[in-house]
């Protein structure tokens, strides 16, 4: 309004105005003309909207509050195959990408790691307005579409369903996404290094984790966590078949099980308690209670302030404990066989997922031997010494040496999975059984995948007196572990076991480089959210 | 350091009577006081003199071209390898690795003084390398292992373990 007023005023001015004034006047006139045109267009459109024949075929659905039970079958995107050609179906999916071109709009619809192309074209089933509506939908919105499945002549390379496309007849928004996404899914699945060459964006880890919900939608994340679920299931299935019992243990405990330094303290009414570093003491007590073979899947807490690629403060522990007859190698064999069953199961059942992850993070296929390779700690040290590493006989393996030994073993035996047996007693927890032949060593073992530790285990001391001695040697307050020691006084079978980190197994099986990639909502010293 | 190197070189050349050396300046440049004539100053100068004294001038190269190459690498040793700042070690290893790709010895197919002095000079660097790095500079390691086992060369220096087979997948960084 004000602009028009100004214009009016200038018109009234007498002649002889400056060039500048003239120009200004012209500009104002142009502006006014444009405005009028726009208004006319808008009016046109309103008119057109009124006689939009397809206006019942699209729109935003009212919020689903379970008002009605629709008798409508929704077909999953992964089931859209040429067998369904010419069928009229309903699909619920996200809008992965959309591209409008004149009277047509192409959408890529995504459900989990599967995508399909959908086409809305002006014609019998869709009006101009409907195409426009579809083109304006924001990425990641969830929609319901009714469409006819059509075979395509040329494969659609960019989608997982390459042989068909959907000809959309109705389209309704179930949940609308905000127009701006904190990260683009295409950027998040780009292989490392590719972005640099083409000058394209990659998403760094912290951005991913800050927006984990969106990052988890990427094909890579979908594949990782499906495979991880597979690890858990294979672990359970294998052990149940071997006659194990699944147990649940408390995570709030009164005393640290392995060294006091790295436990979280929680206030517990008038006293304090700890978060369990492992279900160690409880699974052993179950052995004393005649459960023979037990396992436990649950959270484990470590208060280590280490910000490395492979440490989390909370992770999922897969723990095994088992009574044996005469030699703890009986247990080692059980555990390694379980691991081998897991590797085989993953290889047989999760090839699609492995390939998907490999596209973004290439790695060599995981190799293992049957039976599993078992080396003694001394042999391991000898291999390291032969490679020029200087370390003492009773030193613990440092991370670089651990990795190097993994490479040496891979080179010599061609396996990514092996057991290192007979660790020095000094570097193991108090409940570890000393080696009868050499008191400096112990009946303990670690298992490694791609040169990194995934399992730590040992034969445990099942004699109350020796256990007391060992606890005192480690300076542990006997009062606090009284219940634990007492459980061995009334007849305790010899037993051994070990604990595996689920995230590490997934990470190392897939050859990934950071454990945060295989933890859905990772916890580390610097991250408590999301 | 340079003095121990010269005494090792003497033994390596088969000189029976050890010379006496002094040093001069802040950088401890070695000085050899000859019985007759002016004192000789500098590692390469003294080393070349010892080679003459031992009547093993083949170690300085057979042809004019070879002699030039030997001089070139002796200079490289003094100018680049010695007193090299830590962050430039990688550059030296990379250059040398590239150069040695198609050579047994520094001057090509014959063992020369350049091999001996380069070995002495680079030893402190190679000793510090992790296995993965030794594998990355594969040609340097191969040449180094060959020289440290060359009869009479090693003397005061500890042997460095070198793996004969690749442990890390190729192309992996």
UniProtKB/TrEMBL annotation, chain A:
Catalytic activity annotated for this protein? tRNA(Asp) + L-aspartate + ATP = L-aspartyl-tRNA(Asp) + AMP + diphosphate
Q: Which InterPro entries match?
A: Aa-tRNA-synt_II, aa-tRNA-synth_II, aa-tRNA-synth_II/BPL/LPL, Asp-tRNA_synthase_2, Asp/Asn-tRNA-synth_IIb, NA-bd_OB-fold, NA-bd_OB_tRNA
The protein's predominant localisation is: cytoplasm
The record's Gene Ontology cellular component field reads: aminoacyl-tRNA synthetase multienzyme complex; cytosol
Subunit description: Homodimer. Part of a multisubunit complex that groups tRNA ligases for Arg (RARS1), Asp (DARS1), Gln (QARS1), Ile (IARS1), Leu (LARS1), Lys (KARS1), Met (MARS1) the bifunctional ligase for Glu and Pro (EPRS1) and the auxiliary subunits AIMP1/p43, AIMP2/p38 and EEF1E1/p18.
Q: Specify the Aminoacyl-transfer RNA synthetases class-II family profile domain's residue ranges.
A: 225-530
User: What name has this protein been given in UniProt?
Assistant: Aspartate--tRNA ligase, cytoplasmic
List where in the cell it is found.
Answer: Cytoplasm
TrEMBL record, chain B:
Q: SUPFAM superfamilies from the entry? A: GST C-terminal domain-like (SSF47616)
List the Pfam families.
Answer: Arc1p_N_like
Q: Which GO terms describe its molecular function?
A: translation elongation factor activity
Q: CDD domains given for it?
A: GST_C_AIMP3 (cd10305)
What are the GST C-terminal domain coordinates in residue numbering? 49-170
| Any one cellular-component term (Gene Ontology) | aminoacyl-tRNA synthetase multienzyme complex
PANTHER family tied to this protein: EUKARYOTIC TRANSLATION ELONGATION FACTOR 1 EPSILON-1
Q: What is this protein called?
A: Eukaryotic translation elongation factor 1 epsilon-1
């Amino acid at each position: 309004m004000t602009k028009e007023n100004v214009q009016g005023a200038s018109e009234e001015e007498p002649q002889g105005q400056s060039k500048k004034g003239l120009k200004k006047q012209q500009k104002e006139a142009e502006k006014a003309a444009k405005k009028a045109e726009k208004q006319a267009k808008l009016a046109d459109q309103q008119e057109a909207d009124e006689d939009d024949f397809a206006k019942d075929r699209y729109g935003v659905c009212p919020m689903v509050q379970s008002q009605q039970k629709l008798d409508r079958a929704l077909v999953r995107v992964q089931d859209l195959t040429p067998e369904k050609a010419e069928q009229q179906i309903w699909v619920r999916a996200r809008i992965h990408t959309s591209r409008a071109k004149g009277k047509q709009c192409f959408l890529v619809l995504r459900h989990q790691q599967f995508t399909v192309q959908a086409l809305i074209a002006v014609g019998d089933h869709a009006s101009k307005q409907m195409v426009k509506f579809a083109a304006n939908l924001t990425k990641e919105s969830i929609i319901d579409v009714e469409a006819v499945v059509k075979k395509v002549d040329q494969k659609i390379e960019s989608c997982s369903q390459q042989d068909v496309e959907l000809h959309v007849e109705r389209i309704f928004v179930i949940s609308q996404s905000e127009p701006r996404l904190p990260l683009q899914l295409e950027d998040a699945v780009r292989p490392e290094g590719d972005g640099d060459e083409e000058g394209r964006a990659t998403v760094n880890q912290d951005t991913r984790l800050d927006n984990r919900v969106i990052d988890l939608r990427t094909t890579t994340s979908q594949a990782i966590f499906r495979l991880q679920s597979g690890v858990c299931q294979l672990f359970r299935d294998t052990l149940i078949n071997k006659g194990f019992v699944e147990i649940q243990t408390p995570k709030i405990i009164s005393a640290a099980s392995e060294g006091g330094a790295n436990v979280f303290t929680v206030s517990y009414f008038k006293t304090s308690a700890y978060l369990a570093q492992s279900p160690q003491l409880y699974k052993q007590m179950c052995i004393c209670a005649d459960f023979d073979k037990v396992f436990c899947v649950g959270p484990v807490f470590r208060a280590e302030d280490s910000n490395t690629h492979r440490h989390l403060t909370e992770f999922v522990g897969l723990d095994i404990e088992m009574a044996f007859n005469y030699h703890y190698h009986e247990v080692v064999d059980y555990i390694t066989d379980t691991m081998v069953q897991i590797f085989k199961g993953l290889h047989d059942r999760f090839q699609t997922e492995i390939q998907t992850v490999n596209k973004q993070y290439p790695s060599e296929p995981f190799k293992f031997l049957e039976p599993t390779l078992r080396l003694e700690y001394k042999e391991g040290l000898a291999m390291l010494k032969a490679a020029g590493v200087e370390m003492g006989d009773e030193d613990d393996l440092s991370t670089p040496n651990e990795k190097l030994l993994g490479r040496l073993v891979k080179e010599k035996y061609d396996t990514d999975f092996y057991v290192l047996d007979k660790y020095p007693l000094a570097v193991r927890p108090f409940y570890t059984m000393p080696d009868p032949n050499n008191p400096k060593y112990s009946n303990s073992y670690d298992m490694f995948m791609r040169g990194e530790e995934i399992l730590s285990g040992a034969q445990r001391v099942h004699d109350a007196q020796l256990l007391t001695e060992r606890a005192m040697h480690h300076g542990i307050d006997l009062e606090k572990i009284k219940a634990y020691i007492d459980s061995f006084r009334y007849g305790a079978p010899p037993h051994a076991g070990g604990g595996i980190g689920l995230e590490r197994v997934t990470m190392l099986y897939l050859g990934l480089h950071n454990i945060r990639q295989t933890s859905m909502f990772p916890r580390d010293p610097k991250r408590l959210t999301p | 350091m340079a003095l121990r190197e010269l005494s090792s070189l003497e033994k390596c050349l088969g000189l029976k009577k050890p010379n006496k050396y002094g040093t001069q300046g802040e950088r401890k440049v070695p000085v050899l006081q000859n019985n007759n004539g002016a004192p000789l100053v500098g590692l390469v100068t003294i080393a070349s003199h010892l080679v003459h004294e031992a009547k093993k001038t083949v170690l300085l190269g057979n042809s004019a071209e070879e002699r030039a190459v030997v001089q070139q690498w002796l200079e490289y040793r003094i100018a680049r390898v010695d007193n090299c700042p830590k962050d430039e070690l990688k550059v030296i290893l990379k250059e040398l690795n590239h150069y040695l790709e198609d050579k047994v010895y520094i001057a090509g197919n014959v063992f020369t003084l350049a091999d001996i002095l380069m070995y002495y000079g680079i030893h402190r660097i190679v000793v510090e390398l992790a296995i993965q790095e030794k594998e990355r500079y594969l040609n340097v390691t191969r040449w180094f292992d060959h020289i440290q086992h060359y009869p009479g060369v090693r003397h005061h220096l500890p042997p460095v373990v070198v793996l004969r087979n690749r442990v890390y997948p190729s192309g992996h960084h």
